[in-house]
Design a protein that fits this description.
This protein is an alpha+beta fold and 213 residues long. Helix content is 15%, strand content 36%. The chain has 2 domains: 130 residues, Probable tRNA modification gtpase trme, domain 1 (Gyrase A, domain 2), CATH 3.30.1360.120; 62 residues. Helix 1 crosses helix 2.
């Protein structure tokens, strides 16, 4: 008899899940009992991600989206975020909708089981982030979305400023899975004075839909 596959998020948020569902062998929290008005911290670790490496990234269109020409640039289309990291490397983050089929070819590596993936959304998130990193998430010389690479809470991360308007602000970031517990603790502690709360996927989907409209 074949054992049932079970995939485990590296994150354990405080609070009681109100609604969950099983999806692709992950237990996904849709909603917590007390989510409040935000700002929110989301566990997106179940969302599919790939690393793309090749000497000619211009020849690739992951999930039908071109790779940006310049390191630090990002393209967000149809619920997919493509981030140019350097001359030969890009990352692809699937944020919403049904999980797509994996891109073909040896240039792609799925990173979902090796990395933590979190989102910070709502008012005061940049005040929270600047407690944890010297990276300039508000760099006015860059148009959102844009990618920064460097330390966040002393951990090497990929961080994307996805939106920074008065109505909506959000950053997403990944790092090695092994830092998950310390990273989550540091973010929640930094956000305590601003009322930062864990929230489920439903709240994240509402934010993404508003961003895409």
């Amino acid at each position: 008899m074949t054992a049932e596959i079970k995939r485990q998020s590296p994150v354990s948020f405080p609070g009681n899940p109100l609604k969950t569902e099983m999806r692709d062998h992950w237990t996904v929290v849709l909603e917590y009992e007390a989510e409040g008005e935000g700002p929110y911290l989301f566990d997106l670790s179940h969302r599919t991600r790939w690393d793309l490496q090749d000497t000619d990234l211009s020849s690739f269109q992951p999930l039908g989206i071109g790779v940006p020409d310049t390191p630090g640039q990002c393209i967000f289309e149809n619920g997919v975020l493509v981030n140019r990291m350097n001359r030969t490397q890009a990352s692809i983050w699937h944020l919403c909708g049904e999980n797509p089929d994996a891109p073909d070819g040896p240039a792609y590596t799925e990173t979902i089981d090796a990395t933590l993936f979190l989102g910070l959304v709502g008012q005061n998130i940049f005040a929270i982030a600047e407690k944890l990193s010297a990276l300039d998430f508000m760099d006015r010389s860059k148009s959102a979305p844009f990618l920064l690479q460097g330390p966040f809470s002393h951990v090497p991360c990929q961080v994307v400023t996805l939106e920074r308007t008065t109505e909506r602000s959000g950053i997403l970031f990944t790092c090695s899975r092994g830092y998950s517990r310390d990273m989550t603790h540091a973010i929640l502690a930094a956000g305590e004075e601003f009322g930062l709360q864990p929230a489920g996927e439903k709240a994240f989907m509402r934010w993404i839909e508003a961003l895409s409209s």
